[in-house]
Amino acid sequence: AQKITQTQPGMFVQEKEAVTLDCTYDTSDPSYGLFWYKQPSSGEMIFLIYQGSYDQQNATEGRYSLNFQKARKSANLVISASQLGDSAMYFCAMRDDTGGFKTIFGAGTRLFVKA
Amino acid sequence: GAVVSQHPSRVICKSGTSVKIECRSLDFQATTMFWYRQFPKQSLMLMATSNEGSKATYEQGVEKDKFLINHASLTLSTLTVTSAHPEDSSFYICSARDLAGTDLYEQYFGPGTRLTVT
Predict the structure, then answer these.
(1) How far is CA B107 from CA A8, A102, B28, B47, B88, in A?
(2) How high is the pLDDT of residue A99?
(3) Distance between CA A48 and CA A46 in Å, rounded?
(4) Secondary structure of B84-96 in the HEC alphabet?
(5) Which are the contacts of B85, defined by CB distance < 8 A and separation ≥ 6?
(6) Residues A103, B111: C-beta atoms closer than 8 Å
(7) What is the pLDDT of residues B57-85, one digit of tens each?
(8) CA-based R_g, chain A, Å
(9) Alpha-carbon distance A13 to B71, whole Å?
């Protein structure tokens, strides 16, 4: 069975600093996708970044980068130059690419950016 | 980018009544739509996978007779919470996959529906 684990319920970061949000996963499928989503208080799910299981390079999207360590089954999100608007809930998610393409989510990490 | 809408955004209903939530893909066709449920300060839990023209596939522990899902067209899926009870109060989010999408992350989320059962 697939599983996503986020062990940091809450994280604080100083504005303009970088922060790493941890995510580990477990799956026996060779093909899968890893995602990070941001959920502000409004509730909408905002896509941040994607990493495919066969991608050789770590994904980057602006201030977001995904530190993909396949052997360790980790997919940590790095946010550089944090901004006050980055304060939100962050979810790591994994999609099963061999079956019904279901996406499951980790428990989430609430990020607080301090001025 | 692709847009998924949900209606209503908020609904309050009395215990024992049924409420329908619509999920629409506005500018693309979706063969598959997913329904999630999110309790306050918790993660999204997948309830069911809805495929156009066929029966929904429910996750373990989700009552299919209580949460009726209909995916009648490539742009519309509905979730009906039947005989709602206060414990059904939650944030319901749908997502849709783009039939013709070439993006690797072609799953798009709706804005969610907050259901309160009194």
Answers:
(1) 26, 10, 11, 16, 25
(2) 66
(3) 6
(4) CCHHHCEEEEEEE
(5) B15, B16, B117
(6) no
(7) 999 999 999 999 999 898 999 999 999 99
(8) 14
(9) 43
- Check CB contact under 8 Å for A43 and B105: no
How far is A44 from A77, CA to CA, in rounded Å?
19
The 10s digit of each residue's pLDDT in A9-56 is 999 999 999 999 999 999 988 889 999 999 999 999 999 999 999 999
Strand B57-58 and strand B44-51: the pairing is antiparallel
Using a CB-CB cut-off of 8 Å, the residues of chain A touching B105 are: 33, 35, 47, 50
How many CB atoms neighbour CB A9 within 10 A?
10
Mention every residue, 6+ apart, whose C-beta is less than 8 A from residue B73: B52
Whether residue A30 has a cis bond before it, omega within 30° of 0: no
What 3-state class would DSSP assign to A86?
A: helix
Neighbours of A86 (CB within 10 A): 19
Among candidates B51, B98, B102, which has minimal Cα distance to B77? Answer: B51
Q: Are A68 and A59 in contact (CB under 8 A)?
A: yes
Residue among A42, A45, A107 whose CB faces B109 most closely = A45
What tens digit of pLDDT does each residue of B84-107 get? 999 999 999 999 987 666 665 678
Closest among B26, B56, B46, B1 to A91, alpha carbons compared: B46
d(CA A96, CA A52): 11
